Amino acid sequence: MATTILQSFDQKLPNGPEIVLVFRGAYREFRSTVASTVDMDALRAYVKEGISVFQSIAASNTDWKPKRMCSDFLSCNYFIRSTLHFRRYAPLALTLICATERHGGPRSRFDVQWSLYSEQGALLATLAILEIKNTHIIHKQDFLPAESTPQNFPTQVMKAMGEAESTLLKNNAIWLSKQVGKYDIGCSDVAVFDWNAMFIFSYTQQHSSSDGPVKGTFFSESGQTKGMTFRRLLFAFVARPLKRFEIRNSQQ
Fold first, then answer.
1. How far is CA 202 from the centre of its chain?
2. In 3-state terms, the chain is what percent helix, strand and coil (to 5)?
3. 147 to each of 26, 136, 155, 160, how far by Cα in Å?
4. What is the mean predicted confidence (pLDDT) over 220-238?
5. Which of 168, 191, 217, 218 is positioned for an S-S bond with 146, CB 3.0–4.6 A?
6. What is the pLDDT of residues 63-111, one digit of tens each?
7. What integer best gives the mean pLDDT of the chain?
8. Is the pLDDT of residue 122 over 60?
9. CB 189, CB 113: distance < 8 Å
10. Residue 51: which residues within 8 A CB-CB, separation 6 or more?
11. Quick one: pLDDT band at residue 215, thresholds 50, 70, 90?
């Protein structure tokens, strides 16, 4: 039976016996030999951003058409309320494009990128980037030591500077933050995903203030998720920078 778009966002990714993973271990080591990644500084610490933030974004920025049916969510057309207001603030029709892997010259390649273009095809903004990793690479315990609150973030940064790698991140998280860090100049919202877990890096505050913290969110579909799924989280991940663009555009 076909699934509505709304229903598809409530469904977790398949993990039944029909899904067979080649890697049978619990932890797959990840590191990079690319010079630009090796030379990049790892994130020292981050301020935790709760998953409830993305729950609210998903709930407030969708205009579902429940009667529209589809078997594959990725092929569906869905509507973001903020996109309906673009013409009010901008004289041009805007196009949101999701592109897959390509090489971007000296910068690191991305796996999936959402970009906003003008009617003439000019790039207006790179909204979000998703790096898709091999399975069993993203682990909560690698990020937890660097997790901070707004209040203790300066203390955590000072503590990190005393570590050998100048970061409180551990193991794979160090290399993931190095790789993601190469995108932050041109894009404030970058995530890594390995089928089992996702970690979202938000550089918005860092871009607005030189000493602003990077925010981080870890999510896994295992256990109780209070209705959040990877599909819903990914939607909110892209909707947020799109909404920010709308706000900036309305103020010009």
1. 8
2. 35, 25, 45
3. 22, 20, 11, 11
4. 91
5. 168
6. 544 434 333 333 333 333 334 333 333 334 788 888 886 555 444 455 8
7. 82
8. yes
9. no
10. 217, 219, 225, 226, 228, 233
11. very high
- State mean pLDDT over 225-237: 91
Name the residue with tokens 């799109």.
Answer: 242
Query: If you ran DSSP here, which 8-state letter would residue 192 be given?
Result: E
Tokens of 236: 């909110």
Phi and psi dihedrals of 3, rounded to 5? -115, 135
Specify the pLDDT at position 49. Answer: 97
pLDDT at 185: 80
Gap between the Cα atoms of 25 and 27, Å rounded:
6
The DSSP H or E segment spanning 140 is helix 140-143
Residue type, position 213, single letter: P
* HEC sequence for 142-176: HHHHHEECCCCHHHHHHHHCCCCCCCCCCHHHHHH
Buried b (16+ CB within 10 A) or exposed e, 35-74: eebeebebbbbbbbbebeebbebbeebbeeeeeeebeebe
**How many Å from the N-terminal Cα to the C-terminal Cα in the chain?**
47
For residues 219 and 12, is the Cβ–Cβ distance under 8 A? no
Name every residue whose Cβ is closer than 8 Å to that of residue 66 and which is 6 or more positions away in sequence.
4, 5, 6
Q: Which residues contact 101 (CB under 8 A, 6 or more apart)?
A: 109, 110, 111, 112
Per the CB < 8 A criterion, the answer to whether 112 and 129 are in contact is: yes
Task: Summarize pLDDT for 65-77 with one digit per residue, the tens.
Answer: 443 433 333 333 3
The residues, any chain, with a CB within 8 Å of residue 9's CB and separated by 6 or more, are 58, 73, 229, 231, 232, 235
Residue 196 to residue 106: CA distance in whole angstroms = 30
